[in-house]
Write a structure and sequence with these properties.
The protein has a single domain, classed as Alpha-Beta Complex (Aspartate Aminotransferase, domain 1), CATH 3.90.1150.200. The chain has 3 helices and 6 strands.
Length: about 130
């Protein structure tokens, strides 16, 4: 992650209100540490981590809280990733307090995100059809 990316993520986090700042900082630290091979940027208005240009994980503030999303998470077979995308292979979970974050669980999801990937990078080129990468 470049220092510019880090500044953008910190700015995103600090523009939130508590407890969402703390939640976002915790998620950013976990994603950055355990997706060390990834690049990150503010994409569609929120922090997203990419492997080889393919979106892997990100978080955003929504009405229900801070949403942690894994683009290929529907195939992780994880009960806690209960919010499944309707059209694609994403899955997510919402947090409203730092105490709701189970770091071991998130690390397990991150590890799965490295080996279970759908090709979102080329989604437009394939006219909305997803293909499995890994």
């Amino acid at each position: 992650m470049t220092s510019s990316d880090l500044v953008q993520i910190k700015q995103y986090n600090y523009n939130l209100s508590e407890p969402f700042i703390s939640i976002s900082e915790t998620l950013a630290a976990l994603l950055t540490e355990h997706l060390s091979e990834a690049t990150t940027k503010i994409w569609h208005g929120h922090p997203v981590w990419f492997i080889e240009g393919n979106p892997i994980a990100g978080y955003s503030q929504q009405k229900q809280g801070i949403r942690l999303m894994f683009w290929s998470g529907a195939d992780f077979e994880e009960e806690s990733l209960s919010v499944k995308g309707k059209k694609f292979k994403d899955a997510s979970v919402f947090f409203n307090e730092v105490g709701e974050i189970n770091e071991d669980e998130i690390i397990r999801w991150i590890e799965k995100s490295k080996v279970i990937q759908w090709d979102y990078k080329n989604l437009i080129k394939r006219k909305g059809i997803l293909e499995r990468l890994k």
